[in-house]
Design brief:
five-stranded antiparallel beta sheet; Beta-Lactamase; 50% helix; 3 domains; Helix Hairpins; Heat Shock Protein 90; five-stranded mixed beta sheet; rod-shaped
Length: 438
């Protein structure tokens, strides 16, 4: 069911039920007030007649009354005066039914000749004065009031429903415009969505949608650059392999050894680039890593240095509880991130200089920070801003340009961070912050 239909159904049903309850409440109170008013009319009529009767001597009512009753038509309220012996003395209409077969004071109802009557009786100077009206007349009056009231009510109800329908359509018009704008867009269009006069509730949706489109555009552009850069980087070692192999086939045996060695080195470089590309793609994608056992800081340092050369140049400083603090990152990725930092520091430093690793644990924040500092070639702030870009290399470097990009991707994937800065000597200081197990 569409949102507009759902809103109309919910609000229309609520309005209708509310109006019906209010109408029932008002009609009930109106009927009660009408009955009370008619009863007051009967009582007032009886008191008026009682006041007139009190002006005559008591023996006046002992005389025989022979005058005919003047009224033959209904006047709404009828009246009878009887003695204590239930003898009829006076009445307003001819052939009125005998109400007072049993003398009752106050209000009562009687079924007389198939009709129900509402009677009020008052005793004055030994006489019983009764006034009455038919309940059928009351019901007819109540019906007339109901019909007179229900027409404005129905007009107001249907008018409210129409106003509600128009209001809901007007309020939801920005959603219709948004749907139309999205349905008319080309598949390759990533331009921001513009909706005029959008309500405050819809603006965050449009803003987040535009941010999503912006991120998608950035992702597509990054992937396009990635594909272009990857193709360029892979072309170089492949060309070298092809060239060396061709030369190896044209020269003598002694020279073949050199060319074949160069071809092997190019193949190794190509294999390394492919492995790094695969790892980077898995880290940045929705690939679900297995539930590896947690790894401690101490084990992580050992695993990261397992395949590195010149590990004797690495100087570590770890806290006393390094064997107890567990890293909340898959062991394979945590070791790869730290290994890339160490490998980058070793390759960009002189063979006689040390690479320091300082590990600190922040228990309050739940993180462990690995600070890798080298004394390598001097870097500039401009170069530092590009150092985590894919395939970016310093002019003097011979790596693939993917190592630090992989570290940054791993840190972001698991809620950590990679902070790069320059040391006083111009070397690189890399601070890798990873979450720890609680």
């Amino acid at each position: 069911m569409a949102l507009q239909q759902r809103l109309l159904l919910i609000l229309g049903t609520s309005f209708t039920l509310l109006w019906l309850l209010v109408a029932a409440w008002l009609l009930r109170d109106l009927n009660q007030e009408l009955a009370r008013t008619l009863d007051q009319r009967l009582a007032a009529s009886a008191r008026m007649v009682s006041g007139l009767v009190a002006q005559y001597p008591a023996d006046t009512w002992q005389k025989e009354l022979t005058r005919s009753n003047p009224f033959t038509k209904d006047l709404g309220v009828v009246c009878q005066i009887r003695s204590e012996d239930s003898d009829l003395i006076l009445q307003t209409h001819r052939q009125l039914p005998p109400w007072l077969s049993e003398q009752e004071e106050g209000f009562s109802e009687h079924l007389i000749e198939g009709e129900r009557w509402r009677v009020y009786t008052q005793r004055t100077n030994g006489l019983y004065i009764s006034t009455a009206d038919r309940l059928a007349d009351r019901h007819l009056l109540s019906k007339g009031i109901f019909l007179a009231s229900i027409v404005p009510f129905l007009v107001a109800l249907f008018g409210s429903l129409i106003a509600l329908w128009l209001g809901v359509r007007r309020v939801l018009r920005p959603l219709v415009e948004l749907r139309h704008a999205l349905s008319q867009r080309r598949p390759d269009s990533l331009a921001p969505v513009q909706i005029r006069n959008a309500p405050a509730e819809l603006k965050p949706v449009i803003e987040n949608l535009n941010l999503l489109l912006e991120r998608v555009e950035e992702t597509i552009a990054r992937e396009q650059r990635f594909t272009s850069d990857a193709a360029h980087e892979l072309r170089t070692p492949l060309t070298a392999i092809k060239t060396h192999l061709q030369l190896a086939n044209r020269t003598n045996d002694n020279a073949n050894k050199v060319f074949l060695d160069d071809a092997e080195a190019a193949a190794v470089r190509l294999q390394r680039i492919l492995e790094q590309l695969l790892t980077l793609a898995r880290v940045e994608s929705s690939y679900q890593w297995g539930q590896e056992e947690a790894i401690s800081i101490e084990q992580l340092l050992i695993l990261a240095q397992a395949d590195l050369a010149d590990t004797e140049r690495i100087v570590t400083a770890v806290p006393s509880n390094a064997a107890l603090v567990q890293i909340a990152v898959p062991a394979e990725l945590a070791a790869l991130a730290l290994k890339n930092l160490l490998d980058n520091a070793l390759r960009h430093s002189n063979t006689t200089t040390e690479v320091s690793v300082n590990v600190t644990v922040n228990h309050g924040k739940g993180t462990a920070t690995f600070v890798v500092k080298d004394q390598g070639q001097e870097l500039t702030p401009e170069k530092l801003s590009h150092i985590t870009q894919r395939f970016w290399r310093n002019s003097q470097a011979n790596g693939s340009g993917l190592g630090l990009a992989i570290v940054d991707a791993i840190a972001q994937r698991f809620g950590g961070s990679l902070t790069l800065s320059l040391s006083e000597s111009g070397g690189l200081v890399a601070a890798l912050e990873l979450a720890t197990m609680p």
